[in-house]
Amino acid sequence: MRRSNYFVPLFVSGFLLFSAKLLISCSDGKDDDAASTAKKGTGTDTDTDTDTDTDTDTNSCTLTANTTEGTKNSYGCAVLTRDTSSCEESRTAQGLSGYWLKFSCLVTLTKSGSNVVISTDSRPDTTSQYYATTDACYEAFSASGRKTNPNKIAAQTIKVTVPMTGAKAASTTTMTGATIGVAISGVSIFGNFAAPGDDIYAEAETFDKCEGHPQNTGNYHYHTEPTSITQSDSAFVGVMRDGLPIYGRLDSDGTTPTLDSAGGHTGVTVDSPSTPVYHYHVNLQTNGTDSAYFVTTGVYAGTIGTCTGCN
Questions:
Q1: Distance (Å) of CA 61 to CA 21, 135, 231
Q2: Residue 58: its pLDDT value, please?
Q3: Which residues contact 212 (CB under 8 A, 6 or more apart)?
Q4: What are the angstrom distances between the C-alpha of 252 and each of 97, 233, 236?
């Protein structure tokens, strides 16, 4: 934060100016200590304090409004509870229910026959070093083993049409392109692969505190476990482009599931506690040297819906 030094002949005037500067510097809603305390690791720390973002300061990040912070991991990323009460009525009026009501109100959901159209700009509802430094959502971040790529977050125009109730197909389909799913935050989900010529495990070094980063067009996205949504649990993460739901590492009973080649299985979930349904899980993968919890295995288990702005 920049400070200016002013020379004013009168002591009283100088005191008033100093007081004004001090008030401004204390009211911008930023936590400058977050980056300095970030450290290497992917575990969960003992910080269980919660913080509801209700700051009305015009300098605050509006994308983080209506979120409540829960447990933070060692990078300082908190699992967020997203208040969707302001858009729940319009969604239920369309006939949407279950996990569809968990999507952030930053995401527009439109029921169209037996499909749902998901419209999003893919900007995260968390602060990041990938926002422009002049953006209120910018937060510096550094940690051992992490670095920042040269790209900056830019609003996208993404519209994905998926079945309201996805179903497993007779065979899998290989994932290609960029956006292969949408998280409840509205952020794009990318596959377990990098751009041609790049290594996804090396690319992971450029993830921010919440495990996302933007590519060259500014499309911010997750490849791995999105820690503002799920941290080693059974939480609902989002949907793939085939309309099938994605959950965290664990089943609803707290056990680690046995998954098929698509990274999914049929079983009960937190949203379908009595009827088994096919769904994906965040899952551990390795190249023999490095490992990561990816959202996908690189194939769809269902039939892919249409999308504009996904590539």
A1: 21, 8, 23
A2: 56
A3: 124, 128, 130, 187, 220, 221, 222, 226
A4: 19, 8, 10
Rounded to an integer, what distance in angstroms lies between the CA atom of residue 306 and that of residue 311?
12
Nearest to 126 by CA among 109, 106, 96, 147: 106
User: pTM of the prediction?
Assistant: 0.82
Taking only the tens place, the pLDDT of each residue in 225-273 is: 999 999 999 999 999 999 999 999 999 999 999 999 999 999 999 999 9
Q: Is 235 helix (H, G, I), strand (E, B) or coil?
A: coil
DSSP bridge pairs for 30: none
Long-range interactions of 230-233: CB distance < 8 A, separation 24+: 230/79, 230/282, 231/44, 231/71, 231/73, 231/79, 232/44
The total of other beta-carbon atoms located within 10 Å of residue 53's CB is: 18
Q: Note whether 239 and 181 are within 8 A (CB).
A: yes
Q: By C-alpha distance, which of 107, 155, 131 is closest to 213?
A: 131
Query: pLDDT per residue over 82-97, tens digit each?
Result: 999 999 999 999 999 9
CA 3, distance to chain mean position in Å, is 33
13 phi/psi in degrees, rounded to 5: -60, -45
